[in-house]
Amino acid sequence: MSEQTSRLLAVARQEARAQVSSGHLLLGALRPDGDDVLRRVNLDVDLDEIRDHVRVLTAGASDPHARLSTRVKRVLTEHRSTRDVVVALLDDAESTAARALVRAGLDPAEVCERVRRMPGIRRRSRASAKQSSVPPPPEIQPL
Asked: Percent of the chain beyond pLDDT 70?
């Protein structure tokens, strides 16, 4: 996991009341202290509006002992950069992140394409990612 992705996860944990969902990672991707990857593609959204949508979508039952949702664990295990994490979350139409954008009147597929085309971001191979000095949090390390 890259340093930026670790920061994104830390901000998502601040946003979450219990379990971190894809919507909380979306909020982290919008906040300057969470690597604001979505602001860098000039996504014009109101953070408070997205936060309200995420709260509505995540209200209800979740496992209070699980710190990360199953979807978030899978995405963070499979992807290293914040760009790839955001794209993976928004590619899944059932994710809280994608549904929050739809509620805000945005097309997740269009946002994905804008993130994919971001200049100056190189994809890291899994081999180079393993050399990262920031290990993934214990709850998402592969079994």
From this structure: 76
The structure tokens listed for 122 are 């190189």
Tell me how far apart the alpha carbons of residues 85 and 90 are, in angstroms, rounded to a whole number.
9
pLDDT recorded at residue 102: 92
Q: What is the pLDDT of residues 10-63, one digit of tens each?
A: 777 767 777 788 888 888 888 887 777 787 888 878 888 988 888 888 876 555
For helices 82-91 and 70-78, give the axis angle rounded to 10 degrees: 130
Residue-by-residue DSSP string for 67-113: SB-HHHHHHHHH--SHHHHHHHHHH-TTSHHHHHHHHTT--HHHHHH
5 CA to centre of own chain: 8
Break the chain down into helix, strand, coil percent, rounded to 5. Answer: 60, 0, 40
* pTM across the whole model: 0.72
Q: Which residues contact 116 (CB under 8 A, 6 or more apart)?
A: 83, 87
Which region holds residue 44: left if phi is over 0, alpha if psi is between -120 and 50, else beta? Answer: beta
